[in-house]
Inverse folding.
């Protein structure tokens, strides 16, 4: 990775793209510290603790959500809108046809995603304002002519504008930088949260003799976790495909061998995000509108990762694993369609040795995909719990527990690896251009 960065900075065009990306990311980080007038952030930061989904969203925004700043929503509304559009493109035939119409269709899908982002940003902004409204001291209404409605309207507009600005920064990073802009914003947000937690732990060293050993244990656990996740992330099943020789005119085509790579972690972190979202949504909604209700107390007791009783933690872990398995198989069907792959192989004169073309090839690929998805779901279920337990062991006080918990550690590794691949692809393209000249 380090050598790839060094080689990339030797190429002027790539170096310029990296600097542009860093400048846009700096603008994002500055926005994470711009406060909203008339808002007391300490009230909302207390409500985030104990909610796994809000904790993840807070780490993605680099702590901006807990502080209630301009970019409190971060890239979350855009990510949710993208997921919704992916699901709609599968379920609605008109959108599915539009997504297959090339560049023009993708532009329309992207425009619909922006509209959906604004809608979700407004809904989430209202949720934040309602949460603050539960405490009369959270919103300083005297700055808005003693009108709670005017204060809420102002904050909703500001938070929605902040979310739209973050989306715009992500698109500009994609256009002018290296890699996917939305992924880089999430990556920087998680690293910023980790940096803040590490700095806090370092400041505890003079007054706490155990803080240094806890920090060392945390670094060792991170190293082991990163190695294990990278090892699994690079694992894949290669299905060999042989293409028959074809004579067209006076030329002969085909006769080559290829492979279909099916990765164990091909679903990425999406099943985890879906599972945490489903489990956290009832708690978040009931906590915003009915914080003293029986449903909120029952859900907090039995269906959260911070359940007060052992039975609640076991039930939570069981339901979370079921959701991870369900979403893993669902998302695998969206990402890898054995029927389409089988038709593509047959149309290009290819075949898998020992397997008949057509339906037999489709069933064979479906069988392999289901097996790999099963192991991928088991892997994601382990990742959902082992990092949190390991970090809790390394840091009993909990300062560093939520730094790389669950999906955060997967996102950091996957984005870093994707960024390295993008740099290598850019350098390879430059080499080809130089060779052609």
């Amino acid at each position: 990775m380090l050598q790839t960065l060094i080689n990339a900075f030797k190429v002027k065009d790539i170096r310029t793209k990296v600097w542009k990306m860093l400048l846009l990311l700096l603008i994002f980080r500055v926005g994470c510290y711009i406060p909203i007038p008339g808002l007391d952030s300490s009230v909302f930061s207390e409500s985030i603790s104990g909610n796994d989904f809000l904790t993840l969203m807070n780490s993605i925004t680099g702590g901006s959500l807990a502080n209630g700043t301009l970019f409190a929503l971060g890239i979350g509304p855009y990510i949710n809108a993208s997921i919704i559009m992916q699901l709609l493109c599968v379920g609605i035939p008109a959108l599915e046809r539009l997504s297959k119409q090339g560049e023009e269709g993708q532009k329309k899908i992207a425009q619909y995603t922006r509209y959906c982002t604004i809608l979700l940003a407004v809904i989430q902004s209202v949720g934040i304002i309602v949460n603050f409204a539960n405490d009369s001291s959270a919103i300083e209404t005297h700055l808005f002519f003693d009108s709670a409605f005017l204060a809420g309207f102002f904050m909703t507009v500001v938070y929605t504008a902040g979310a739209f600005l973050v989306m715009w920064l992500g698109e500009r990073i994609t256009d002018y930088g290296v890699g996917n802009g939305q992924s880089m914003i999430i990556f920087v947000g998680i690293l910023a949260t980790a940096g803040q937690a590490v700095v806090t732990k370092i400041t505890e060293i003079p007054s706490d003799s155990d803080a240094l050993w806890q920090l060392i244990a945390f670094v060792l656990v991170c190293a082991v976790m990163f190695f294990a996740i990278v090892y699994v992330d690079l694992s894949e099943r290669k299905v060999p495909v042989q293409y028959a020789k074809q004579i067209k005119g006076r030329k002969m085509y085909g006769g080559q061998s290829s492979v279909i790579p099916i990765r164990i972690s091909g679903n990425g972190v999406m099943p985890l995000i879906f599972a945490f979202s489903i489990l956290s949504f009832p708690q978040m909604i009931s906590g915003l509108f009915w914080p003293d209700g029986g449903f909120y107390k029952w859900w907090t007791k039995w269906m959260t990762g911070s359940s007060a009783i052992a039975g609640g933690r076991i039930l939570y872990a069981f339901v979370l694993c079921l959701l991870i398995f369900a979403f893993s198989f669902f998302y695998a069907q969206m990402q890898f369609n054995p029927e389409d792959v089988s038709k593509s192989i047959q149309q290009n004169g290819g075949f898998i040795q020992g397997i008949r073309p057509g339906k037999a090839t489709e069933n064979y690929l479906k069988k392999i995909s289901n097996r790999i998805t099963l192991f991928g779901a088991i892997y994601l279920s382990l990742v959902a719990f082992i990092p949190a337990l390991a970090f809790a062991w390394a840091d009993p006080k909990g300062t560093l527990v939520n730094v790389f918990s669950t999906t955060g550690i997967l996102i950091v590794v996957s984005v870093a690896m994707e960024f390295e691949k993008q740099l290598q692809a850019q350098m390879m393209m430059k080499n080809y251009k130089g060779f052609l000249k």
Observations:
- The longest helix spans residues 359-394.
